[in-house]
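Lay summary

Proteins are chains of building blocks that fold into shapes. Our project writes down both the chain and a compact code for its shape. Here are two examples, one after the other.
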Amino acid sequence: MNILTDLLTTDCISVYSPARNKAEVFTTAGDLFEKRLGISSNTVVEVLNAREDRSSTALSSGVAIPHGIVTTLKKPAAALIKLAKPIDFAAPDQNKISILIFLLFPEIAIPEHLQILSFTAQLLLDYDIRENLLLEQDPQKIFELLTFSNDFDDTHQIAESRHLLQSIEASKYNIQSYIDEWAMLEVSRR
């Protein structure tokens, strides 16, 4: 079990989505969240676009973590979309994106949000997990892969994966962008 266990459900996992661009994949995510949480798909799309307009949420290695704040939520929620064909997403390594984990947060709670974003980024940038996600077609098995993956709290676990270290270095700018974003939002709340 890990931090995604309470955020993700199998009904919020879409496998081989036919979305052909960012707008279509955001609409698909909005529809998943609307069915699960009862919030408007349009609201989700607006929140995701507003965040994406500041800077791309694509990491490297074909993954992205689009996210945003929906104040009517009671707790954070996640959805995973695996695309049938990769799409452009302004990734720092110029690779197209195949796997997206969407995160919605109810309000600004910087420590919790950074922990969730950091864990999700580390999970997606792990070469073995990412490759298994690309191969897996069953939403239940994808859910198990994500929620039963080890926490990445120990530095030595991260250092053991050379692929993860390379991906994290390539994505350093985006991770710093997430941290800067939450800091700006916290200052604006005061």
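And here is the second example, written the same way.
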Amino acid sequence: MNMHLGWIGAIAVAASVASSPFHHDAAHANATPSPCTADSNYQRLSFWVGDWAVLDSLGARYATQRVHSVVDDCAITVDWTSGGGNKGMGMYAYDRKTGVWKQIYVSNQLPTPSGVSFRTSDPSYAGPGVRFVSLDEATAGNLARSRTTIIPSSEHRAIQLFEDSPDGGKTWHVVFKAEDRPLQPGES
């Protein structure tokens, strides 16, 4: 429980950092680069930073997503907007102590009744990008699981693959496959 509250506090801090104006002065211009920029573990999602048009598997525009590097490149925030007033905000960060990525995603979208999901990276995934698995505890009789994989693609694009498993992760099926393409000037 405390871990979840800690992540909610962290996303609130990141949101305020991401939305506040940046002030640069000569003292900050000569500052030492963040250790997170030199550590490849922190940079596994750096390909995803940018402003994106999110297309569904048929190529139709589904949403807009703005992905920002924050806290001296130690975390990433994501703002999602799609039709019907659906919005979401995520924070993704690598945890050096545990060696895994962690994610909290807050949304006004269903089917998640609380609109909050917690995920951690899947240590068995060896592909490009990062695969996140749900931290929701299994309950008797409910073996449903979900995972999301964020993968770099050609031509400065990214793929987001959303999958569900009805049997505790023995088999998986694609629920939604999205392609992120850079927003063109004038698009929003």
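What can we say about the second shape? The CA atoms of residues 41 and 147 lie 20 Å apart.
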